[in-house]
Design a protein that fits this description.
Four copies of one chain form a homotetramer. Chain A has eleven helices and 15 strands. By secondary structure, chain A is α/β, with parallel strands linked by helices. An eight-stranded parallel β-barrel of chain A has the order 7-8-9-10-11-12-13-14, surrounded by seven helices. A four-stranded antiparallel sheet of chain A has the order 2-3-1-4, with helices on one face. In chain A, helix 4 links the parallel strand 8 and strand 9. Chain A is elongated, with a radius of gyration of 23 Å. The first copy, chain A, starts with a strand and ends in a 12-residue tail after the last strand. Chains A and B meet through helix 6 and helix 7 of A and helix 7 of B.
Chain lengths: 349, 349, 349, 349
């Protein structure tokens, strides 16, 4: 950290800062400039976090220099990680397609959606049994009955299951059915849930908060990691901006930035960011091209009667085009579409 | 709702929309314009929510006309509500000061902060025992030990207690100590928590999500209300914008807007919005002047060693100025500072 | 400035930074930490601005420490300035009301609006002859004919005139009629216009860009100041956020922040921020209470037929309430309503 | 437009709306619902724009249904346009690379950058002679001397020139040297400049305002088009959000959205959105993959001493990779890299 002193700060003000830092077990280097003096702090950033340096007399600003996350940082873990979900890898060299219905409604609908997904090249099945909805009057999901349907469809198709958990006390239940726990954008700072997911023994798909900075997203991952689980996949799903022509603004640059700051895999969600069917394929192409380790996409056999987010689900011809692009686009960025376990080796990066 | 047809929509497209609406039990009125046709939907908006009108052929847009919240709406409840917390009213005619430490640290610190708050005119004590922190390495609160301290300080000072709950399964515990449950900005869409709070038999202080629209805030209140609890106080605490000179941007206009849309009381949090001590009093004045039903403010006997948000806690001379302004400013907007139970009647609005 | 080196930066990388800074005539202090090294730069920040420090090997970040503006900064000009417009002061100790029609339409409408404004306590008349409109199909203003009407109304009422200029090459013309030049939010980074206004010999009312940071706003003022004109009044008029219930989000905290960073007066525009009539008085109260040096408000004798922004113009009873609050509220914040030249002395701050 | 009446609106209120619309020459259709009544307006939207419907008694909301832009809309011009710049096409079927230095500094630097650009596949040269800079102390460009350098380099390389104009009164001068006029993000609502550019007889490259909605961007294009110039290319260059890890947030979804709403070509600027060299290639890939009609990229022979935006300029190996991706990626989205005039035919879409 760097403490910036005000132009009129006195020697006593500067000494007070140095003294407080040293008392906390750190070292402080004073650089006196023509206009102002700065104090560089050396030591463990956690030591200084609880000091109220900003409130001291003569202090103008306190600038954090090093990242506040450790376990998920790439600084101490230079190689990018591969996370395996039911045997399916997500990480460098591959591009993994996760697809399925936004919400599990019936066994038939879920199976059909899974088969559509598989035909398009998906190796993981998504599907929601617990749905966080802005309105208490909207469909909230089937709960455990939905989890059972997902497990049956996994049996039928062989696709490992990714599904959302919305409350810390459901984590054990959901983990008993699912291969990967999804934590949604509205729970990106639900720390009790993050910690529970960190102890569940399942890989976690962690969506970025809709107004979360990349740093906050990595801090949320740090909450999971701190409980002993480093099998975390980050998912960029669009952020909230002033633009209303799309549901959210897909921040594609977040993919390379997060991959530079963290060793964790990063995927994108083109369905929930754009919020309309005609944007899903363009945003999927953008996500793959920018270098995402995977994409997660809504498909539905009958979008017009879907109970959740029907307007953005892919169907029919869209899926043939999806199949084509997840096959042809990844090689241009040094990747290969992930196929079912053991079928092919990833391209080396 | 209004369905807007594309310029090239055919009669068959229009008939399909009308037919779907009628099947769902509604009525549809078709208005044919020179350039385009619109279809007005009449009936219960809940009926239409699950129809995928937007995905139908020839449909350009679907515009919602009526508010999606009912119980908290002012449309069916014209008079503004008063919520009582341990006998202290929050609502029209009064201006209630809630103050106390950001986090409960020790019995002494909490008692001192409570006495400072009371001397400044506060009739409710705030203080956090469960703290949601962006970093897993930051102080997370004392938990139940903190709740006990708050209860002791209530005993000593007579101030009813407002404290945060961060997980659905702590609601019962927190409610057994607190007079009012606070739900923080990071949990503004933690629906399991909102529902649990709705069943706890305590008034709820509901902070706006840091990127939540006013409508989403009212929908969150609707989640609480739907479980039978209408004793909800809304709290504007600043929203996330591109401006970085302040921690958040206090959206003062949200106060009159929310008061027009909902019958619930609306207060402001000048401490967490500005994020620095020198902004707390100016923002408190702005909040009272804009017409808030109360303000909630951090005070701390020793901000320089506070474990949480020290830089924004008021101390010493700030508190005398706070006492002056909560006494002098409310009468200019037709209000009177709330005093301890039975001491004075509110000014009629 | 502080240059933050990457954890793996070599001694040669550090020496290269130091050497580049010294070549540019500055001094560099190296602080070696356990995890990383920082280099503090001492000297004139303008020297370093053109160095590509961020692009050097081993450099992680470059953090600017001192403000990039000089002439408008409070660092070298501790006392807050008073700007006089046709003899009317704007600055500490007073609260100046500027009011009038959004657009000048006819001599009668302008005169009536001016008289309404004056009756409410205004000492300056606002009114637009050149209107920047998002749509080329909207009313663009009367141009010079509008300026003549404003001059006639000034003659009749004695109110000095504030009016907008939208193009550098109209500055001379507008300055020949107006007492103060307004630069609108859409031109907040129209540098040619800012420079021309800096040379026009008239005070300037500078609105904040709708997505401009406080720093960018002060940099825009620096453009005016650099051409020799320090008679600048800053105007907060709402920023663009995700919230759509209001036209813009009035950032009241920007007032004390800008007053701390700059010696220039700061006023607020409650009409254009809220965008609806029922928000104008609440936001005016908030603006005065937060400590603004003035407010600028739209009034119109017949809002229902106004050619521009009618929905937000005050009329009738609103104006009596406005008169009351601009008289009663300022004393609570140590100010007095500005009255016509020589009529009263401001309250000392 | 649709006028939404309040639940308590009377028949007289409804009749007043209908009557006002009819007086303005339109037709109004009344749809009476259980809870509220809506009035659909039929006729030319321009007629209704100046009516203060929102201010009438009993009116809750006025919802605009059709687009406010006409000439640039795709509704009346279904086929996507091709804009030719000095013979080089930008539009469907091709992907045009525009590259060059951010600022023209010297003849040598400009020529070298142009040759680097050409080697990478660029068919148009970018380069700034007039630079809009946030700070008055930053390099403002060489002005006409810079234009002459660009003209010389065009002579030498055959690359037509795209360059920015920042003031309406420089348009004629810039147009006398340039093949295409660029209007930057800070001038996206400088209407005098837009109109002057519409009369200059040169194609216009129109950047989106950094906080401009897609609709405002199209309205800015409408300003140009209204003066008789439909040779407009839209450029998405990143928008301002809360995220600070990147300079701006590249809104890739804006490309397909703008292409759906307008017939104009849409390109992206990966250099100014990300703001750092390591993001330029990933964002270029995303831009091409999402379906942009072109990309515009900063290159510089010596980024470490560049006078403007050096940190984001491509150099050396980056350029070889750029050459590879602009060749290999477009065919996957049904396009072909634009080559010098007459060299190849575009792929049909």
């Amino acid at each position: 950290m760097v403490v910036v002193m005000a132009p009129g700060a006195t020697e006593a003000d500067i000494r007070a800062v140095v003294s407080l830092v040293e008392t906390a077990g750190g070292d402080a280097f004073v650089s006196r400039g023509v206009e102002r003096t700065i104090v560089g702090l050396v030591g463990d950033v956690q030591q200084f976090g609880s000091l109220n340096l900003r409130g001291m007399r003569g202090v103008t600003d306190v600038v954090r220099i090093s990242a506040p996350y450790k376990l998920v940082s790439r600084e101490n873990h230079a190689e990018r990680s591969v996370v395996r979900v039911g045997g399916v890898p997500i990480g460098p060299g591959t591009m993994t397609l996760i697809a399925g219905p936004c919400a599990v409604e019936t066994p038939e609908q879920t199976l059909q959606a899974a088969q559509m997904a598989q035909a398009a090249g998906a190796t993981l099945l998504r599907g929601g049994a617990f749905k966080p909805r802005s309105s208490p009057y909207a469909f909230q999901g089937l709960g455990e009955a939905g989890l059972r349907i997902l497990a049956d469809v996994r049996e039928e198709t062989g696709l490992p299951v990714v599904t959302e958990v919305v409350d810390a006390h459901d984590v054990e239940l959901v983990a008993s059915y699912a291969d990967m726990l999804q934590i949604g954008t509205r729970n990106a700072q639900n720390f009790a849930l993050l910690q529970a997911a960190g102890e569940a023994g399942r890989p976690v798909l962690l969506k970025r908060g809709m107004s979360g900075t990349i740093e906050e997203w990595l801090m949320a991952a740090e909450y999971v990691a701190q409980r002993g689980n480093l099998d975390i996949v980050l998912c960029e799903r669009g952020i909230r901006t002033f633009e209303k022509a799309t549901r959210n603004t897909l921040d594609v640059a977040a993919v390379p930035v997060a991959q530079r700051l963290s060793h964790l895999p990063v995927i994108v969600d083109p369905s929930h960011s754009g919020g309309s069917r005609d944007l899903v394929l363009p945003l999927t192409r953008a996500g793959i091209a920018v270098g995402a380790d995977g994409v997660i996409i809504d498909v539905h056999p009958h979008p017009e009667t879907a109970l959740c987010d029907g307007p953005q689900a892919l169907v029919d011809g869209d899926l043939r085009e999806l199949a084509r692009l997840v096959r042809d686009l990844p090689p241009l960025v040094g990747r290969r579409l992930t196929v079912a376990e053991g079928d092919a080796a990833p391209v080396p990066v």
